[in-house]
Amino acid sequence: MSGAPQIRADEVLVEALPRPLERPTGPHEPPGSGPRLARRPPLPRRPSLPRRRPSADTVALVVLATAVVLANLPALLGLFDLDPLTFRAKLTEALVPGLLGGRPTIDPSNGFNSQAIGHLAALDLLHLHLPWWNPYEGTGMPLLGETQSAGLFPPTLLTIFANGQLYEHLLLELIAGICTYRLARRLELARTAALAGAVAFALCGKFAWFSDATVNPLPFLPMLLLGVERAADAARSGRRGGWRLLAVAIALTAYAGFPEVAYADLLMGVAWVAWRAGTLSGARSLFAARIGLGSATGVMLAAPMLLAMFDYLSRADLVSHRGAHLGSRHLPFAEAPQLLMPYVFGPLNTNRHPGLWVMVGGYLSIVLVLLALLGLAAHGRRGLKLMLGGWALLVFAHMYGVPGLGNVLGVLPEMGRIQFYRYATAALELPVILLAAIGLDDVRRVESHSWRVVAGAGAAMLGVGAVALSAHGVVGALAPTVPDVEDFFRASLVWALATVAAVGIAALVPRARLRGMLLAGVVIVDAIALFAVPQFSAPRAARIDLAPVAYLRRHLGDQRFLTLGPIRPNYGSYFRLASIRLDDFPPAAYARFVHARLDPFANFVGFRAPGVPTPRQVFLRHLAAYEAVGVRYVTTGPRAGLSGPGFQLVFSDSTARIYRVTHAAPLASARGCRVISSSLDSVRLDCSRPSTLVRRETWFPGWSAHVDGRPAPIRRVAGLFQAVRLPAGVDRVSFGFMPVGMQWALLAALAGCALLLLPTARGAVARVRIPRRARSAVLAGAGC
Q1: DSSP characters over 266-327
Q2: Exposed e or buried b per residue across 734-744, where buried means at least 16 C-beta atoms within 10 angstroms of its C-beta
Q3: Which of 394, 615, 681, 720 has the smallest number of Cβ neighbours within 10 A?
Q4: Measured distance CA(519)–CA(200) in Å, rounded
Q5: How far apart are CA 129 and CA 484, in angstroms?
Q6: Which among 450-454, 736-740, 756-760 has the top mean pLDDT?
């Protein structure tokens, strides 16, 4: 053993290591050059997957979104300020007017109602409060039930941002366009025709001229019709489902917050269902079941909104919506030219001609009408064309009071309460746009029909001349008072003739695909141009003075102020300042109280009869009554001051003056009691004897009170306010409001959500079970 060679441990380690591979020596490499590491063979390249091109439908939707953005580009870039706060609240300190006269929208409700009250509802939701009540308008009134706040409508949340209404309407326009495109494709129209129709409806006259709650339901009309089509497809094939989109469309139509537009849209939906049922000879029962299930689920989802709306409107003073025989309010036929040539009478709201801009609800265009007439003459789709054409004719006849035919829709329930000529324009625009898409599709497919377009374009030019002649008399009457109205008249005439000529030229292109693209391009350019015009009437720059708002926030507390100018109704709601004046449909009890004690001439919708005393004069005559309802401050313009005993100037700047009223009553008081603390929804008092707490807030069914945590009955006093009996001692009284029966409505909405989501949830569970079973089998086979 001693003679054996000794092996060291480090040698064992070296031998144990893997030896490097030796590369064989070549003729030019000496054999003693030493071992070298062999190069790794290159990894095989993964085959490159072909790039997936976007589908043609995706490209079309991108073009649609681009067109909507281009139409809104002047406002999106900040070149013009569309924020209603700029010119509705009377707090503008400096302003650079727009390039055109007039206003960017017709109805001031986009500021007084949609922005001011909608902003309050959005703030309530962000603070995790459901928007049941508005304490900042009048002496308080329901918020959700008033409907125009659209308090539970998801896009309303965008109004919390500066100029958020612009983004809200941009979203609604995109939804309207997407749903119209999907509907047209479901009707087997070519993509170019569907795209043209989608852009035309996304940028329709109603969207262009209005930005109040009347536009909220617009996107859900094509969604509703698309839901009917999906239900029909499911019934035809015998598969399950097909009703859920219909339910969502009905619910969103209700939450959108304008029942008059919703009613007109649902009437068109009924006409569409009747037509589609006639085409399903063997599956009508299945179709009816899906329509019934979708409608019932939609009503369940919308139950909170429907309950709040009916509960309030049944107790509200509806002012100008009290009813008319057979819906007899109509537009004068002399104003029909602006339906085809929208700006033939000048920019929006630049004249006082009866009906112009005030009552009209939107427009079409001569190009859409031309293509719609061609659509009626197209081959195929006879039932669809008759339904669309017949419905559009009935709506037009009712809007303009065509003798006999105009009364057909007037016999429907509640039609007398609806200003149909103003609020149902989308129910005229969509059928005409769908017919125009059918006409465009027919001209694209059948080359021989191009000459129909040429002949139609010639006839349309004669029609443009006739429309211009009928409008010329009104234009002449407006010329002395409306700047540039004759320039607008000439520009409208040139644009109408140019677009009609472009349609005729495009129709002569021999290649079908190019012909369709050119025709669609004319429709799209026409829609963008007409939509963008009102934006140029908006201010180019403005500065808002918020100093009066800041002063009232510091000093007003739970009392109220009266506006005689700045912080117009209902912008107290926007800034969360209680304003005694409102521009809305008030509770009937409040209307009676105001007419009896505060202002006999108030009509609550922003208009005051000529020759009656002004609000300032009425306030000075009834100062004690205003003090009794808790009016602590009065705002006036910088040059319209107040003088006399009973008030004192406490704030003044270039925009407003604020006066403090000396003897304003508090929100809550009780004889023999000392108020320790008070807020809008609670009060703490120290009473030396039993007393009655009077809270100067509107009494309404749904109010509840708790005294030291125990329920207490509320009774009505002075015909308007709330009263609660109190024991002696220190008591805390809290108040809360929820519409009567709302618990059941919320349960119905939850049940509707369950019905809507149940098929999806069951499918998800079924997909999850298979991997779990497979995993269990593997584990069992491995002996685990």
Answers
A1: HHHHHHHHHHHHHT-TT-HHHHHHHHHHHHHHHHHHTHHHHHHHHHHHTTB--GGGS--GGG
A2: bbebebeebee
A3: 681
A4: 13
A5: 50
A6: 736-740
Q: Half-sphere exposure of 83 toward its Cβ, with a 13 Å CA cutoff?
A: 24
Within 10 Å of residue 295's Cβ, how many Cβ atoms?
18
The pLDDT, as a whole number, for residue 414 is 78
**pLDDT at 470 > cutoff 60:** yes
- C-alpha separations of 392 from 72, 264, 373, 433 in Å: 28, 12, 12, 10
Diameter over CA atoms, the chain: 136
Helix, strand, coil shares of the chain as percentages rounded to 5?
55, 10, 35
28-32, 47-51, 158-162, 738-742: least confidently modelled range:
28-32
Task: Please name the residue that has the structure tokens 């559009």.
Answer: 392
User: Which tokens in the block code for residue 762?
Assistant: 């069951």
Note whether 630 and 665 are within 8 A (CB).
yes
Kindly report, residue by residue over 304-318, the tens digit of the pLDDT. 999 999 999 999 988
Does residue 407 or residue 623 have the better pLDDT? 623
Contacts of range 239-246, beta carbons closer than 8 Å, 24 or more positions apart: 240/759, 241/759, 242/290, 243/290, 243/291, 243/293, 243/294, 243/297, 244/294, 244/297, 244/756, 244/759, 245/294, 246/290, 246/291, 246/294, 246/295, 246/298
Query: Comparing 525 with 584, which gets the higher pLDDT?
Result: 525
pLDDT of residue 634 exceeding 90: yes
Instruction: Give the bridge partners for 703, in sequence order.
Output: 737
C-alpha to C-alpha distance for 469 and 9, rounded to whole angstroms: 114
Given a contact cutoff of 8 angstroms between Cβ atoms, the answer to whether 181 and 225 are in contact is no
Quote the tokens at residue 535: 């934006």
Residue 470 CA to residue 337 CA, distance in Å, equals 7
Q: Which among 147, 146, 164, 163 is positioned nearest to 155, based on CA atoms? A: 164
What residues have CB less than 8 Å from 342, skipping those under 6 apart?
A: 205, 208, 363, 365, 492, 530, 533
Beta 647-652 vs 657-661: how paired, if at all?
Answer: antiparallel
What H or E segment, with its residue span, contains residue 661?
strand 657-661
Angle formed at CA 228 by CA 226 and CA 232, multiple of 5 degrees:
115
pLDDT for 400: 87
455 versus 199: which is more confidently predicted?
199
* Integer CA distances (angstroms), 603 to 44, 146, 593, 595, 721, in order: 83, 17, 13, 9, 21
Nearest CA among 317, 304, 368, 313 for reference residue 527: 368
Query: pLDDT at residue 500 above 70?
Result: yes
Give the type of residue at 585.
Answer: F
Cβ neighbours of residue 76 closer than 8 Å, sequence gap 6 or more: 69, 166, 170
pLDDT, one tens digit per residue, over 382-403 is 999 999 999 999 999 988 888 8
What is the rounded distance in angstroms from the CA atom of residue 190 to the CA atom of residue 177?
16
For residue 699, give Cα distances in angstroms to 140, 530, 579, 704.
9, 47, 17, 10
Omega within 30 of 0 (cis) for the link into 216: no
Q: CA torsion angle for 327, 329, 333, 334 (degrees, to 10)?
A: -170
Do residues 713 and 720 touch, judged by C-beta distance below 8 A? no
**Is 212 a residue whose pLDDT tops 70?**
yes
d(CA 163, CA 111): 11
Model pLDDT, residue 37? 44
CA–centroid distance for 576 within its chain: 22
Q: How far apart are CA 775 and CA 784, in angstroms?
A: 11
Cα gap 641→585, rounded to integer Å = 29
d(CA 53, CA 356): 49
Please say if the pLDDT value at position 255 is more than 90.
yes
